[in-house]
Amino acid sequence: MRIVKITLSSIITIALVYCLNRSWNFGKPIPPLGKFLDPFHGFWQNAERKNQKPTNALVKNLKGEVTVVYDSALIPHIYAANEEDLFFAQGYITASCRLWQMEFQTLAAAGRISEILGPSAIDFDRGQRRLGMVFAAKNSLAEMEKDALLNKVANRYTEGINAYIHSLNYEQLPVEYKLLDYSPEEWTPLKSGLLLKYMAKTLNIGDKDFEMTNALKLFGKEMLDVLYPDNEKVGDPIVDNPNGWKFKPVTLDGVAPTTSPEIVQINPLEKSSPDVGSNNWAVSGSKTASGSPILCNDPHLELNLPSIWFIIHLNAPGYNAMGASLPGSPCVISGFNDSIAWGETNAQRDLVDWYKIKFKDNTKNEYLSDNQWKHSNKVIEKIIVKGKEPFYDTVVYTHHGPVTYDESFHGDSQKNHYAFRWVAHDSSKELLSFYLLNKSNNHSDYLKALDHYSSPAQNFVFACTNGDIAMRIQGKYPVRRKEEGKFVLDGTQTSNEWQAFIPNDQNVMYKNPIRGFVSSANQYPVDETYPYYVTSTSYEAYRNRRINQRLSEMNKITPHDMMSLQADNYNLKASESLPTWLTMLDQTKLNAIEKNVFEKLKSWDFYNNINSEGASYYEAWLRSILPMIWDEMKTSKVMLDFPTTYTTIKLIKEKPGLSFFDIQSTPEKETAVDVVRKSFSEGVAEIEKWKKEHGNQEPSWAVFKDSYIQHLARLEPFSYHVLHGGNNSLVNAHGKRNGPSWRMVVSLEKTGVKAWGVYPGGQSGNPGSAFYGNMINTWSADRYLNMHFNSSVEQMQNFSFAHQTLKSEK
Amino acid sequence: MKLLFQILSTIVGCFIAQTFLPWWTMAIVAFVFGYYFNLSSGLSFLAGFLSVGLLWLVKAFYIDITTQSILTEKINKLMPLNVFVLMIIVGGLVGGFAALTGTILKGKKQPRYY
Q1: pLDDT tens-place string over residues A154-194
Q2: CA A23/CA A36 separation, integer angstroms
Q3: What percent of chain A has pLDDT over 70?
Q4: pTM of the entire structure?
Q5: Domain of A680, in residue numbers
Q6: For residue A5, what is the nearest residue in chain B, using CA coordinates?
Q7: Residue A602 to residues A382, A579, A599, A680, A681: CA-CA distances in angstroms?
Q8: Cα dihedral sign for A243, A247, A251, A256?
Q9: Which residues, including other chains, have CB under 8 Å from residue A88's CB and lie 6 or more apart?
Q10: A478 upstream amide cis, omega within 30 of 0
Q11: What is the CA radius of gyration of chain A?
Q12: Which of A44, A52, A716 to mutate to test the interface with B (most CBs of B within 10 A)?
């Protein structure tokens, strides 16, 4: 009897310890409760006191001593004796604030999320592998390893991160590791490469080749050009330099390949939001109060926590740069130094093509290219799945790139295979560009730095303390014949492939234009005299015009004026569409509620401010009218893309009889007027419903918009709802999930560069730190932090929250 | 009295063990004192449960106060139960069963001291 008792009791004890020492998944993941809740080692140890300061550290491999001064926003100002120590410290410090995020983003890039989250992520991971993300990062890594300088920068950064990882024990691990029950692995330069490919995927993978191919078959070429023009011809291009292109362009023989109209039935991978975009501009001293140039940048990305940006100041002899860095990549990405400032916006262009592949047989060992059978290369991708057996996926590589879509992945019944050609697959050295930008002193340094930059293509704005301002659209751009690359291509003809790239010195750029400012906001890049064919999924039509209009009007500009412009909530789209739509309504047929809304809209000043109700009603109307007009595309069984809102609004005005205005589900034949009326009632009804669900409050814009900054692992308690004005296609481009992810204003005064910046997040990635989300309220109040850009530790004395030294252990 | 001693010893032992070693070492400590004091099964379980539960509660409570609940509030929303309650149950059960196992292993009942 006693034996039974002993056995039973021991088994229960051991089983309890075992069960509480590992994670489980019962539909919902459960952390290892014993480990996790233990106050000596578990999550409690991640809670930080308000004044908790970073501690000094002994590390291996430092040449000298590094001093880090943290200011009151926990921005590290790193002072090192040489660049090797500087990049080591950047790696160490960034990891100490953002380790979990750095690793998670690179795991996502590499298609390894199933390792952490389990089977639900397999489809995502397969997609990443089939897009060739690791293939792309490896190509760039090989190129980087050939460059001694770059190799040093990347390796020192890596060593710094690893020194931090090795210093950790379980209780110091970021809380997400404890929750999801895994631990960090060694950092490698490949991971930094993966991060840049992750950015490339966010910014430069946009394409609608499949959608356009389907639209061509369904609507015909003439209608296609009405619905999806290459250039909407609205506002000024980024660089307006008519007849200023004095070079001999590269030309390709022959005409663009013709596409045989066909239907593509694949189920595409999730695309990044079309609202990802950015603003940047620089005004010359002739327009500012101080007489010195001012440069501004605000990249609009999906807003997540921990934030995509980490503010850092890097100082060593010959190196003094500050601004926003990407955790996982060395150097400053959008920032300034003693002489210059620079910033980026996304440079949309078609950098993706899809080739239909003809395999010899089911083995897919050979495929046709110019009447020859070429050998394919098969890569077996092993996807490790938490709590399950690994998943194996065979990805077939052709010389175009990986076959992303086939019968086993998002494919159609016809067993078609589509290979993916993407500019980011090619080897490149972006990191060198950023390193050189960080150290640039003038315009010619900036140009030299950008010569190494391929992807993701960006509009690089520039300003210098000597008074120069400039813009350069830099990326690796294939030379395209007219219409080339808009549709799915025949992969059996090499004449369909990319044959040349635009030489760097023929990319779109200019310096010190007469108008006294340069600006970009993802609009059409260049005037029509530029000798290369330019196309993209779409170009921005509103923000850029508002910015240029304001910059043209403004004089004696102060940094404060620039901050107000970054926060500008004027809704140009509404001002151009709403008055027409209102006249199209039949006021005699409106019910009492609709009449009231009509009056509200009529008196709305077109500003999407926090309390504006007009903004909410307009947005509801817009959300209702777009799918009502393009119902043919929404209900189609094959994938199609809506035309842009700009084109839609224009068509309502100019072609009210267009067949698309007819609503398919009704027997009547509708015109634009009917659709406007119907969608108005629908929009009003939507808001009435919203009001009922929200305690009958009036729909003030910020509450209705309900902006959300989400934790990367989608954990609700680690995320924030934010009340803020703005919207997509406004200068203050803060929509529901996307927005200005970093705001920077730099005044390039000869007596010293002054700068201000802010982002919706905090320097610490730890949800248990007071610095996790502390900048969100500053940001949403459209206020900024002073970037204390001092070149010595002594000058930082008054702004210091904490001092930290990194010393070599010996 | 013996109950109190077992509780105090287990708390001190667990505190030392956990400061340096993983969480489950508290089970070994609870087991050892369960064996040593050799109370009745029920009392030994109670001692183990209370010792670990109390130690964890005090430690967690101290962290919670000094950090103004900055993380507790967030983790609370991720857990099916209040984290303090859940923590006491988790720690207490392991401590309790470990102490119980110790007592049963020793076997021969000593007379009780009240």
Answers
A1: 999 999 999 999 999 999 999 999 999 999 999 999 999 99
A2: 10
A3: 99
A4: 0.95
A5: 572-606+613-699
A6: B104
A7: 59, 8, 5, 13, 16
A8: negative
A9: A59, A61, A62, A66, A80, A156, A157, A159, A160, A163, A806
A10: no
A11: 28
A12: A44
A42 reaches B (C-beta below 8 A):
yes
Q: Which residues of A fall within a CB distance of 8 Å from B23?
A: 21, 34-35, 38, 40-42
Tokens for A502?
A: 């635009």
Burial environment of residue A269 by CB neighbours within 10 A (0 to 12, 13 to 18, 19 or more): middle
Res B1: pLDDT:
78
Size of interface A-B (CB pairs under 8 A): 104
Q: Are strands A458-464 and A417-422 parallel, antiparallel or unpaired?
A: unpaired
Q: Residue B85: exposed, middle, or buried by beta-carbon count in 10 A (0-12, 13-18, 19+)?
A: exposed
In the block, which residue shows the tokens 């730095």?
A: A449
Structure tokens at A714: 């989608």
φ/ψ region of A243 (left if φ > 0, alpha if ψ in -120 to 50, else beta) reads left
Please say whether the beta carbons of A459 and A238 come within 8 A: yes
Position A271 confidence tier, pLDDT thresholds 50, 70, 90: confident
Give the length of chain A. 810
Query: What chain A residue is nearest to B45 in terms of C-alpha separation?
Result: A9
Confidence of residue A113 (pLDDT cuts 50, 70, 90): very high
Bridge partners (DSSP) of residue A802 are A70
Q: pLDDT band at residue A806, thresholds of 50, 70 and 90? A: very high
Contacts (Cβ under 8 Å, ≥6 apart) of A411: A266, A405, A417
Domain limits of chain B? Answer: 2-105
CA distances from A810 to A55, A59, A219, A594 (A): 18, 9, 73, 77
A488: Cβ contacts below 8 Å, ≥ 6 apart: A209, A210, A213, A259, A262, A264, A354, A355, A356, A418
User: Has residue A638 been placed in a domain?
Assistant: yes
- Residue A228 forms part of a structural domain: no
Q: Tell me the shortest Cα–Cα distance from B23 to chain A, in angstroms.
A: 6
- By percentage, how much of chain A surpasses pLDDT 90? 83
User: Is A38 in CB contact (< 8 Å) with chain B?
Assistant: yes
ipTM: 0.94
Q: State residue B114's pLDDT score.
A: 45
What does the CA dihedral A355, A360, A365, A368 come to, rounded to 10 degrees?
Answer: -40
Digit-coded pLDDT (tens) for B53-92: 999 999 999 999 999 999 999 999 999 899 999 999 999 9
String of DSSP letters for A754-772: EEEEE-SS-S---TTSTTS
Domain membership of residue A117 (yes or no) is yes
Q: Which of A678, A699, A720 is the last residue of a domain?
A: A699
Please say whether the beta carbons of A732 and A571 come within 8 A. no
> Residue A763: inside a domain, yes or no?
no
Number of domains chain A is built from: 2
Above 90 in pLDDT, residue A538? no
Among residues A699, A734, A754, the one where a domain terminates is: A699
Give the DSSP H or E segment for A418. Answer: strand A417-422
Q: Residue B110 gets which letter from DSSP?
A: P
Work out the pLDDT band at A276, boundaries 50, 70, 90.
confident
- Residue among A538, A572, A349 at smallest CA distance from A459: A349
* Amino acid of residue A422: W
Using a CB-CB cut-off of 8 Å, the residues of chain B touching A37 are 56, 83, 86-87, 90-91
How many other C-beta atoms can be found within 10 angstroms of the C-beta atom of residue A18? 12
Cβ atoms of A424 and A204 within 8 Å: the answer is: yes
CATH of the domain at A129: 1.10.439.10
Q: Residue ranges of the alpha helices (H) in A366-427?
A: none
Q: How far is B40 from chain A (nearest CA, A)?
A: 13
Mean pLDDT of chain A: 94
